[in-house]
Design goal:
Keywords: Glycosidase, Hydrolase
Number of helices: 12
Mean pLDDT: 96
InterPro entries: Gal_mutarotase_sf_dom (IPR011013), GH (IPR017853), Glyco_hydro_31_AS (IPR030458), Glyco_hydro_31_C (IPR048395), Glyco_hydro_31_N_dom (IPR025887), Glyco_hydro_31_TIM (IPR000322)
Organism: Candidatus Borkfalkia faecavium
Oligomer: single chain
Pfam family, one: Glyco_hydro_31_3rd
Number of strands: 43
Strand content: 25-35%
Protein name: Alpha-glucosidase
Bound molecules: ligand MIG
Shape: globular
Largest sheet: 9 strands, parallel
Structural class: alpha+beta
Helix content: 10-25%
Radius of gyration: 24 Å
Length: 648
C-alpha cells in the first residue's frame, strides 16, 4: 500500500486500468475545492505567482502548462497549432511545483478540461464531465512526485534494442520494390537503418491482417531478405475492421458479437480508410484476446514490430453522419480534425455486461487497442517487440510506446517535440518520439538535420512523412555527410541511450527530464524549456531556429562539452552560465554533467552490429552503471547492471 498517494472518488466511472498499485482512500480532497457540475465535478486550486504546473503528456504549448486550456478528448487533428486543445492521447496528470508541491491525476475515461492559469485566472481549474477518481501524490520535489506516480501506474513497456535504432517511414511505400529502394538508399549512402515502416498501402484494400499479394507476393521471404540486411519491417494496424463479407476476421467478429454496437443495437458502421468498418470493442477482455491473436499472420512471417493508428478512433463519417462530409469546415462545431463529434455518441461498448455509450469512455479506446496488441504479441512472440500507438491514455505506457501524430515540417513543431518529451515521460510514456522532419509539409534540409540532431536522443527515432510531401529520407538530400554524421552519432550513443532507458523503466523514473528536475534550486534552470536532461549524465541543447549558426546554452553548473563532428568526439570544459555555442549543420553539441560519465560505442550500420559492451567513457565522473543485456529477453532486472570505472 502506497501512503504518499491517496485517492478520492467523485462519481462512478468505468475502470481505466491506469493505476496498478494499491492506493488508500483519503477522507477529504486536499489542495482542490470540488463542486459538482452537470454529471461531473469541477476542481479548483489556487496557484502562487511562481508555481510551475507540469504534466498533461501529449499536449501543446510549454513544459510549464500555465496559460493554457487543454481538453482531454482523443482527437485526430493534424493542425497542431499552439492553442489546439486536444491531440491523440489523454494524460490527465499534473504536478504543481512551488511553495506547495504535489501531483494530481484525474483518472476518468470521459472528457476533461484543464485550464491552467488560463487567461491569468491564477488557478488550476479542472472540469471532469463524468465520474472521476482523483489521485493526490505527495513528494518533496516535483521529481519525487513524478517518481511516486510512475511507480503507481506501473512499469513502462520495454522495447527491444533494435527499436532504439533509426527507422524510416513514409505514407506511400506500396510494394517490395519501394521498400528495397529505401533500404538500398540508406545502405549505399553509408547511413545506418534498423527498420522500415509499412503504412496502410501494404494491405489488401486497407483490410487489417491482410497483405496485398501483388505487392508482397511472399511476405515471409521478403521479411527474411530484409532482415538479412539488418532491416526489420514494421506494419501499421488500424483500429477498424472493414465490413467485408468473406474476410475471416470480419466474419468471426460479427458472429461472436465482438464489435461496438450502434445506438440501435446493430454493429456500428464507421467509414475510415477501408470504407465502412466496425470497431472491435477493445474494452472487453475476450475481444482484446481475439484481436491480439490476429497478429499471428504477421508474426508467422517473422515480423516483430507494429504501429497502431486511427485508434482515437478517427471516423471520417458514420452511417449517421454520412453525406454530411461536404459540410466539412474547421468552423463547424460538429467537426474536430477528421471526425464528427456526434459520432462518438452513436455507438456503445459492453462493459461487464452493461451497455456504455462510447462518449463516456472515449479516452480509453486507443489504449485498449494497444493493450490488445501487446497481449497478443506477448503470447505470439518469445521476446520483446516494437509497438507504438497514436492514441493513448495513462496505463497504455505499460503496453507500448506512442508517437505524437501528424505534425508538420515546421520549426515550431520541432520545438514542440522538445517540450512534449519530458511531459510524456512524466505520464509514463518513456518510449516516444515525433515524426522527425515533420509529417505534413515539405521539410527543408536544414530543418530535417536539426530535427534529427534532437531526435537522435529520443527513444523512438523515426523519420516519417505524409503522402504528397517531398521525399524525406535522409539519403535523398544533398550533402549526405551531414546526415551520416547525425545518424551515426545515434548508434555511437546506443550503449548509453539503451542503458538509461532501461534503468529509468526499471526504477520508475523518467528518461527525459526538464532541467528543473536536475537543478530544482536554480531559479533560471527551472524556467528553461529548450534544453533537456537525457538520462542521468547528459544535458542537450538542440538548435531550434532556422538559419541559426548555433545557440545560447545555459549551463547550471560546469560541464564537459562534447562536440560530435561526424568522425570524433571532441571534449572541453565549459563553465557554468550562458554561452553562445556554434553548431554547424551536421555537428551535434551536448554536455556531460559534472561527476558523470558517458559510455560511447563504435560505429554500426544497424543494431545487430552494435556491441554495447565495448565502450569508451567520456566525462569527468568516476563510475557509470551500465544496463546491458541481449536487447530482446523479457527477463530484465537490475542484475543486468554492471559498474564501469574510468581508468586513471
Ligand atoms: O488519415 O496511414 O498519423 O502516420 O501515415 C491518415 C496513413 C492515416 C495517420 C497517421 C500517419 C499515417 C497515415 N494515417
Amino acid at each position: 500500500m502506497i501512503t504518499t498517494i491517496k485517492k478520492y472518488s467523485f462519481g462512478a466511472h468505468a475502470p481505466t486500468g491506469a493505476v496498478t498499485a494499491q492506493v488508500e482512500e483519503g477522507d477529504t480532497l486536499p489542495y482542490f475545492s470540488a463542486q459538482s457540475e452537470g454529471r461531473g465535478t469541477r476542481f479548483r486550486c489556487p496557484l502562487e505567482k511562481d508555481d510551475i504546473v507540469y504534466g498533461l503528456g501529449e499536449t501543446m504549448r510549454g513544459i510549464d502548462k500555465r496559460g493554457g486550456r487543454y481538453v482531454s478528448f482523443n482527437t485526430d487533428n493534424p493542425h497542431h497549432k499552439q492553442d489546439m486543445p486536444s491531440l491523440y492521447g489523454s494524460h490527465n496528470f499534473i504536478v504543481v511545483d512551488g511553495k506547495k508541491t504535489f501531483g494530481a491525476f484525474f483518472d476518468t475515461p470521459a472528457r476533461a478540461v484543464f485550464e491552467i492559469d488560463y487567461g491569468g485566472s491564477g488557478e488550476v481549474n479542472v472540469l471532469c464531465e463524468r465520474g472521476v477518481t482523483v489521485y493526490i501524490v505527495e513528494g518533496e520535489s516535483a521529481h519525487a512526485v513524478v517518481r511516486r506516480f510512475l511507480r503507481a501506474v506501473g512499469r513502462s513497456y520495454l522495447p527491444p534494442l533494435w527499436a532504439f535504432g533509426f527507422g524510416q517511414s513514409r505514407w506511400g511505400y506500396k510494394d517490395e520494390r519501394d521498400i528495397r529502394r529505401i533500404a538500398r538508399g540508406y545502405a549505399k549512402a553509408g547511413m545506418p537503418l534498423d527498420y522500415i515502416c509499412m503504412d496502410i498501402d501494404y494491405m489488401d484494400r486497407y483490410i487489417d491482417f491482410t497483405v496485398n499479394k501483388k505487392r508482397f507476393p511472399d511476405l515471409k521471404a521478403f521479411v527474411s531478405e530484409m532482415k538479412g540486411k539488418g532491416v526489420r519491417l514494421v506494419p501499421i494496424v488500424d483500429a477498424g475492421i472493414k465490413v467485408e463479407p468473406g474476410d475471416p476476421v470480419y466474419e468471426e467478429g460479427v458472429q461472436k458479437g465482438y464489435f461496438c454496437k450502434n445506438i440501435e443495437g446493430k454493429d456500428f458502421c464507421a467509414a475510415v480508410w477501408p470504407g465502412m468498418t466496425h470497431f472491435p470493442d477493445f474494452l472487453r477482455p475476450e475481444v482484446r484476446a481475439w484481436f491480439g491473436r490476429q497478429y499471428k499472420v504477421y508474426t508467422d512471417a517473422g515480423i516483430e514490430g507494429f504501429w497502431n493508428d486511427m485508434n482515437e478512433p478517427a471516423i471520417f463519417y458514420s452511417e449517421y453522419t454520412k453525406g454530411k462530409t461536404g459540410e466539412r469546415s474547421e468552423g463547424d462545431p460538429l467537426y474536430r480534425g477528421n471526425t464528427f463529434l456526434s459520432d462518438y455518441r452513436n455507438f456503445c461498448h459492453n462493459i461487464e455486461g452493461k451497455e456504455v455509450n462510447h462518449w463516456e469512455v472515449h479516452n480509453i479506446f486507443g489504449a485498449n487497442m494497444t493493450r490488445a496488441s501487446a497481449e497478443g504479441l506477448d503470447a505470439l512472440l518469445g521476446g520483446r517487440y516494437l509497438l507504438f500507438s497514436r492514441s493513448s491514455y495513462i496505463g497504455a505506457h505499460r503496453y507500448g510506446g506512442i508517437w505524437t501524430g501528424d505534425n508538420s515540417s515546421c520549426w515550431d513543431h520541432l520545438r514542440q517535440n522538445v517540450r512534449q518529451m519530458p511531459s510524456l515521460n512524466m505520464c509514463g510514456f518513456l518510449y516516444s518520439g515525433a515524426d522527425t522532419g515533420g509529417f505534413g509539409g515539405n521539410a527543408s534540409r536544414e530543418l530535417l538535420l536539426r530535427w534529427l540532431a534532437f531526435s537522435a536522443f529520443t527513444p523512438l527515432f523515426r523519420d516519417h512523412a505524409s503522402k504528397g510531401t517531398r521525399p524525406q529520407e535522409c539519403f535523398r538530400f544533398r550533402g549526405k555527410k551531414d546526415f551520416r554524421s547525425i545518424l551515426s552519432l545515434r548508434y555511437r550513443l546506443l550503449p548509453y541511450i539503451y542503458s538509461e532507458f532501461m534503468k529509468a523503466a526499471l526504477s520508475f523514473d523518467m528518461y527525459m527530464q526538464p532541467l528543473a528536475f536536475g537543478y530544482p534550486q536554480d531559479s533560471r534552470a527551472r524556467r528553461v524549456e529548450d534544453e533537456l536532461l537525457v538520462g542521468g549524465s547528459l544535458l542537450i541543447a538542440p538548435v531550434l531556429e532556422k538559419g541559426a549558426k548555433g545557440r545560447l546554452v545555459y549551463l547550471p553548473e560546469a560541464m564537459t562539452e562534447v562536440r560530435w563532428d561526424g568522425a570524433s568526439f571532441r571534449t572541453r570544459q565549459a563553465a557554468a552560465g550562458e554561452h553562445f555555442v556554434k553548431v554547424p549543420l551536421g555537428e551535434v553539441v551536448f554536455y556531460i554533467r559534472k561527476g558523470k560519465l558517458l559510455p560511447v560505442g563504435g560505429a554500426a550500420m544497424h543494431t545487430g552490429e552494435c556491441d554495447l559492451s565495448a565502450v569508451t567513457l567520456l566525462g569527468d565522473g568516476e563510475e557509470y552503471e551500465q544496463y546491458l543485456d541481449d536487447g530482446l529477453t523479457r527477463s530484465v532486472s537490475e542484475g543486468n547492471i554492471r559498474l564501469l570505472r574510468r581508468l586513471g
